[in-house]
Design goal:
By secondary structure, the chain is α+β, with helices and mostly antiparallel strands. It has one domain: 2-Layer Sandwich (Gyrase A, domain 2), CATH 3.30.1360. The protein is 27% helix and 31% strand. Helix 2 runs antiparallel to helix 3 and helix 5 packs across helix 11.
């Protein structure tokens, strides 16, 4: 399901991503990105006619100062690129990139955990102090309302980070189901930065050695450059890195401090999307939605075994049936065998029969080839299965492969 524009405000950036992933060009990767840039320019001209007011993150003026190309995304004016998607992607894989993700929703849950736990797939009883988990927010039918990060950085309660496009719906849904067990306090006065890449740990060591000692999915409060921040060792690029929650009034100072490091460069949403695709990570509203079960989305690992045993989460009957009997469809990775990327919505075909659909696709700079994710019949989900992807009316050969396309490099100590 693609969420309605009026609901989640995804608008131009995702249009741009779809165009990026759908281009064919004899110039290979550079040609693909060049063609996408030309389409981006046309899209932006068209969007200037839309008079919906856009929100700005606390780093907006800095983005403009740094020469970012700004586009509407999730109701915000956001940087899609600075020096180019390819260069920014490769810099993040080689060194360290700084992303503005302040459009995402942050909140504290004060009180008992059980009001939230009954809506998600994690077991919060085993979430210790200073720990973080990736989890799924479910609707009553077991469909995925959103994916989110939940951490316990201190004794005051939980810290939540949800996707930008659905934060209003998420927070309303959670608040309506707490039943007096706790209180959800939104944090609009906090910005969020992500420092990602193989040199992220070294950069953090220079500015906050204590936070640099965190391992993957640990979190806590620290002082960085004289500012009080909440830092988790996490991110959505497949690289080692940190997400840093900081007061709005300190966000620009923090960003300038990190960007002054010679290893760090500003990175836009375009590269963030290509990085997460290579990492085999889902984009909500595309690779999963309210019709998708965690098992179909290949996220069985996100459903805690203790919760499966208790069957005490929304849609448990459906999800446990999917585990036991296998769902009808499953999310898979796909490697194309020629240079023509397949965009979202492209049909997956075997022997002339439609067997699935692409949900994310584009050129993988690290992989050096077009890659995609999509859903196929479960009997066709094994690695090595040969399929065709319909790109501009032509069948393009592809192979089902295991994800991630580029190895995860999370720091586990």
């Amino acid at each position: 399901m693609i969420l309605p524009k009026e609901q989640c405000g995804r608008l131009d950036f995702l249009t741009w991503c779809r165009n990026l992933s759908g281009f064919q060009d004899s110039g290979g990767a550079a040609g693909c990105y060049g063609a996408a840039q030309r389409m981006l320019n046309r899209n932006l001209k068209a969007e200037t006619m839309i008079d919906t007011p856009l929100l700005r993150t606390p780093l907006h003026d800095l983005h403009v100062e740094l020469g970012a190309r700004m586009v509407p995304f999730a109701g915000y004016d956001m940087p899609v690129q600075y020096k180019g998607v390819m260069a920014e992607h490769n810099h993040t894989r080689a060194r360290a990139g700084l992303f503005d993700v302040s459009h995402m929703g942050q909140a504290r849950l004060v009180g008992e955990d059980k009001g939230l736990e009954k809506l998600i797939t994690a077991d919060l009883a085993v979430l210790g102090a200073g720990e973080q988990k990736y989890t799924l927010l479910l609707n009553p039918e077991g469909g995925i309302k959103d994916d989110l990060m939940v951490s316990r950085p201190d004794e005051k309660g939980l810290f939540l980070v949800v996707n930008a496009a659905c934060k209003r719906a998420d927070f309303d849904y959670i608040s309506a189901n707490l039943d007096g067990t706790g209180e959800l306090a939104e944090l609009p006065a906090r910005a969020l930065l992500a420092l990602q890449g193989p040199e992220a740990g070294a950069v953090m060591t220079r500015y906050c050695p204590e936070a640099a000692r965190l391992t993957f999915l640990q979190a806590g409060w620290f002082e960085l450059g004289g500012m009080q921040v909440m830092i988790s060792r996490s991110g959505y690029t497949g690289e080692d890195g940190f997400e840093i929650s900081v007061a709005n009034e300190n966000a620009t100072e923090l960003a300038r401090l990190l960007l002054a490091d010679e290893a760090v460069a500003p990175i836009g949403l375009g590269a963030r999307d290509s990085l997460r695709l290579e990492a085999g990570l889902c984009l909500y509203g595309h690779d999963m939605d309210e019709t998708t079960s965690p098992i179909e989305a290949a996220l069985t690992w996100a459903v805690a075994k203790s919760r499966r045993a208790r069957a005490d989460f929304p849609g448990a009957e459906r999800i446990l049936r999917d585990i036991a009997e296998k769902p009808v469809r499953k999310r898979v990775g796909l490697m194309l065998k020629d240079r023509a990327p397949a965009r979202e919505g492209a049909e997956i075909v075997v022997d002339g029969e439609r067997v699935g659909v692409i949900t994310s696709g584009g050129f993988g700079p690290t992989v050096g080839a077009p890659i995609a994710m999509g859903y196929v019949r479960t009997d066709l989900a094994a690695a090595g299965t040969q399929v065709n992807l319909m790109v501009r009316g032509k069948a393009r050969p592809a192979e089902v492969v295991k994800t991630p396309f580029a190895p995860h490099r999370f720091y586990r100590g």
